[in-house]
Specification:
Layout: H1 7-17, H2 19-32, H3 39-49, E1 56-57, E2 69-76, E3 80-86, E4 92-94, E5 97-98, H4 100-111, H5 117-123, H6 125-135, E6 142-146, H7 152-159, E7 163-168, H8 171-181, E8 185-187, E9 200-206, H9 215-225, E10 226-237, H10 242-249, E11 253-254, E12 265-266, H11 269-278, E13 281-288, H12 297-313, E14 323-330
Parallel strand pairs: 2-11, 6-7, 6-9, 7-8, 9-10
Antiparallel strand pairs: 1-5, 2-3, 3-4, 4-12, 10-14, 13-14
Length: 332
């Protein structure tokens, strides 16, 4: 990598930051930097922001199968990452991105440390109520919650008459949910679950799919758990403006994450519908999703209610809420 950096630039960076710091970053780049496509840009950014190298990787193919994608912008989150758009299906995604090992460490060590589980559960109660309202319109009695965190939705579903269980890749939240809520939770990735095929009427996954490195593999693993004719219910961040924002930012480096971190995929109703079809699901419904409880709850509730009303009357009405729900049926 060092040989790919202009000698004059290397001299300037050494003069500005010192030989020891430059050498430290170069050593990290030589060891982990297979995904560094612009070494000079990466080195200058690493030195300016003084970050320790977190392993990264390139995404060679969009989940739709296309290898044609364009760089929109760069941003910093543990490393210098890129925002790209698939030229075939329009899905926006992160590449270079953090490796699976780095992502798993983030979830195990940091993701659930900022708020007590009970507070987290209470904040998300409007979301749980919204999802249960959808479930009650379907013929569903057994559900499995993928990415359940501490299991509060499983707990809520059980208290409302459903047979529910769930899984998460973070050990501590799973153990907390088992001991404090008495719910059945598995510490596992969904594709590693030792559960019988076609067990549940529906699989629910709330705000998790954009973290997985391979969405179609994840969706197919969820599909395996669903009975023929059963349902998949997703809640996802609404990224209908992210491509335009990326183009406006251009190739300059943004000093904070463009997407909520550590999101990998910037789904829209259109792009997730396409990916679901590739995963043997038929989309039945897409609509606005309720917000977590916060100081802005009254305003958020109004936006949600109005958007849901118009979306119900006119299914093609745009979704303006921060997130959206999508219901899909397993294709046998």
């Amino acid at each position: 990598m060092c040989s790919m950096i202009d000698d004059l630039m290397l001299s300037q960076l050494t003069k500005k930051y010192g030989e020891r710091k430059v050498r430290m970053q170069l050593n990290a780049m030589d060891k982990y930097g297979d995904a560094v496509t612009e070494p000079t840009l990466w080195l200058s950014t690493a030195l300016e922001n003084n970050f320790h190298f977190s392993p990264i990787e390139l995404v060679k193919q969009c989940p739709c199968g296309s290898d044609k994608h364009a760089l929109l912008s760069y941003f910093i989150f543990c490393n210098l990452l890129g925002l790209r758009i698939c030229e075939k299906c329009g899905l926006v995604f992160v590449s270079p991105r953090l490796t699976e090992e780095t992502m798993n460490r983030f979830f195990e060590e940091a993701y659930f440390n900022n708020v007590h589980p009970e507070i987290w559960g209470k904040r998300r109660m409007p979301i749980f109520e919204d999802i249960l309202r959808i479930i009650n319109t379907l013929s569903v009695h057994t559900i499995f919650d993928v990415g359940t965190a501490n299991g509060y939705f499983v707990y809520y579903a059980q208290n409302n008459g459903l047979k529910a269980s769930g899984s998460d890749i973070a050990r501590e939240p799973v153990e907390w949910g088992r001991s404090h809520l008495g719910v059945t939770l598995f510490h596992s990735k969904v594709d590693n679950l030792d559960l019988q095929n076609e067990t549940f009427d529906a699989v629910v996954s709330l705000d998790t799919l954009y973290y997985t490195l391979n969405p179609i593999k994840e969706l197919m693993a969820m599909r395996r758990l669903i009975k023929p004719g059963g349902y998949l219910i997703l809640r996802l961040r609404n990224n209908n403006k992210i491509a335009r924002r990326g183009r406006v930012l251009g190739k300059k480096i943004v000093r904070k994450p463009i997407l909520p971190m550590p999101h990998i995929w910037a789904f829209t109703p259109e792009t997730i519908t396409h990916i679901l079809s590739l995963s043997a699901f038929e989309t039945l419904f897409v609509g606005p999703a309720a917000y977590s409880r916060s100081l802005l709850s009254p305003l958020s509730s109004v936006v949600f209610s109005v958007n849901r009303y118009f979306n119900k009357i006119y299914p093609q009405f745009p979704i303006y809420t921060q997130s959206f729900n999508i219901v899909a049926k397993r294709i046998n």
